[in-house]
Amino acid sequence: MEPIYLDYAATTPLDPRVLTAMLPYFSGEFGNPHSIHRWGQRAEHAVEAARAAAALVLHCRPDEIIFTSGGSEADNLAVRGAALAERERRGANHLITTPVEHAAVLATMRQLRDHFGFDLTLLPVDATGRVSPAEVAAALRPDTAVVAVCYACNEIGTVQPLPEIAAACRAAGARLHTDAVQAASQLDLNVQALGVDSLALGAHKLYGPKGVGLLYARAGRPLLPMQTGGDHEAARRAGTHNVPGVVGLAEALRLTDAERAAHNARFTALRDRLIDGVLAAIPHSALTGHRTERLPNHASFVLEGVDGNELLMHLDLADIGASSGSACKTGDPEPSEVLLALGLPRAWALGSLRLTLGRATTDDHIDRVLAVLPGLVTKLRAALPA
Ligand SMILES: Cc1ncc(COP(=O)(O)O)c(C=O)c1O
User: Fold this and answer.
1) Whether residue 234 sits in one domain with residue 179
2) Which member of 161, 166, 319, 328 has the greatest number of CB atoms within 10 A?
3) How far apart are CA 354 and CA 337, in angstroms?
């Protein structure tokens, strides 16, 4: 039987149409976009066409797009670059974020607190992982430099009320960054409607290549560059462009935007059948994250008294690729901070399971998971020491 991949939140396969767009830039069109000659001009043209295409999807100006090596780098540049620039500009020394952020944001915020002397407020979240705009408004101070709230959480799929949070930040004069790395394949990326000052995404979560991403950085909001060197990307990010990667990112974004609605309708139906099936068949199981305000492709659970990593190994032996939450957490015996922030007891948080659907997921895949998973959970629970 064909193995079933249900870990599209960790990464997605490259869309063959994206590969076709990228291929010339590995060979014939190998120029450096900074070179003066025709080879360089053609590469520069490809990078600028990609920037314009990405800007169309994000509803921003092309010069507000900064190409990076991925989502992590885009988050680092947005958070650290804005924090240090705001401190220099107006002495702002306070940062706000949430406990449900990816490590690319949370570790950057903690580094700014521990090594650069910023004050850091971690906002509370409710049991579904949602941040309340009123809590954001209450935490904002005149010296708040940056607020970072993810668009959708990678571990639990919860979507945050960004436009309302953005309004609170704007009123207080603080900058709002959003990590849209998980959201980008499924949610609208109109940065004007979202009201954010910066937004990070990475190509490999949207059927594009690994090692390339972008940061939308609103014009007029200074960023201290994190990678210094040449004046690439208008002196905001040094380094010769990954031309095939940038071309692939733009093509992946364009296709995602054009096809999003059709995929989402299918994902939502499959996801809901999976969630209802798991909760009905497995006693002492619970959905993590919000029931409706969640990514269309995302189903995540906690299973009391089950070792999540052991379950993943058994699922792999049953030809099902799943995750315990985030790819960065795999193999870590500690319960995830995100799950603890929801108020879950440790014995539940250790049994986390994330199943994320993608373009190749079928009804048959969901049937097979529902046929295999309950038996595996019973077996693992029976093997527990009394
Ligand atoms: C929410 C979120 N932010 C950031 C990242 C990091 O992105 P990248 O792998 O492109 O560095 C990920 C990837 O797992 C993610 O899910």
Assistant:
1) yes
2) 166
3) 15
Number of independent structural domains in the chain: 2
Query: Would the CB of 209 count as within 6 Å of ligand 1?
Result: no
- Per-residue pLDDT at 386: 64
Question: CA-CA distances (angstroms) from residue 82 to 87, 120, 218, 220, 344?
Answer: 8, 14, 11, 12, 33
Ligand 1 centroid to 283 CA: how many Å? 32
Same structural domain for residues 274 and 236? no
* Phi, psi at 7, each rounded to 5°: -135, 45
How is residue 322 written in tokens? 């799943």
What pTM did the predictor assign?
0.97
- Judge if 220 and 320 occupy the same domain: no
- Regarding whether 338 and 218 lie in a shared domain, the answer is no
For residue 383, report the distance from its CA to the centre of ligand 1, in Å.
35
Nearest Cα to 312, choosing from 297, 298, 327? 327
> What distance in Å separates the CA atoms of residue 219 and residue 304, rounded to the nearest whole number?
48
Residue 37 pLDDT = 98
Contact 150, 182 (CB under 8 A): yes
pLDDT reported for residue 334: 81
Q: What is the pLDDT of residue 135?
A: 98
**Phi, psi of 323, rounded to the nearest 5 degrees:** -140, 160
Q: How confident is the model at residue 308 (pLDDT cuts 50, 70, 90)?
A: very high
